[in-house]
Amino acid sequence: MSHLYRYRHVVRALAALACTLLALAASAPAAFAMRTGLEGSGQSPLPPSNGKNPTYTLTHAHTVVTGGIPGWQLAVIVIGAALLTMSIALIGHRVKAAHRDQVVPAT
Q: What is the model's pTM?
């Protein structure tokens, strides 16, 4: 009996890990981006000081949410995605079961 089927599972797991790491590496620059000031204008993002006692003003940013998705629509999307996933898994299981070798009892 060949043990090559075990290597397929290892290769699949390594491929999934590689794809995950690639996706994380691709999205990391956007996730850690921040504004540092007025780029290209030569102005400092900090207010000028008199040299003796620098004063920095800290401001709080308030986000304004004017739109969004209502909760019931989000629930419908989640339930639809779960049903679609379940359907695909069920069809895949039945296709796999149909292609198995049939065991015939010895008479």
A: 0.36
* pLDDT at res. 22: 92
- DSSP 3-state helix, strand, coil percentages of the chain (rounded to 5)? 50, 0, 50
* Residue 12 near residue 20 (C-beta atoms within 8 A): no
Q: What is the distance between the alpha carbons of residues 7 and 13, in angstroms, rounded to a whole number?
A: 10
* Number of helices and strands in the chain (H, E): 2, 0
Q: φ, ψ for residue 78 (rounded to 5)?
A: -65, -45
Q: Choose the weakest-confidence range: 12-16, 18-22, 26-30, 85-89.
A: 26-30
- Asked if residue 7 lies in contact with residue 15, where contact means CB atoms within 8 angstroms, the answer is no
Amino acid at 29: P
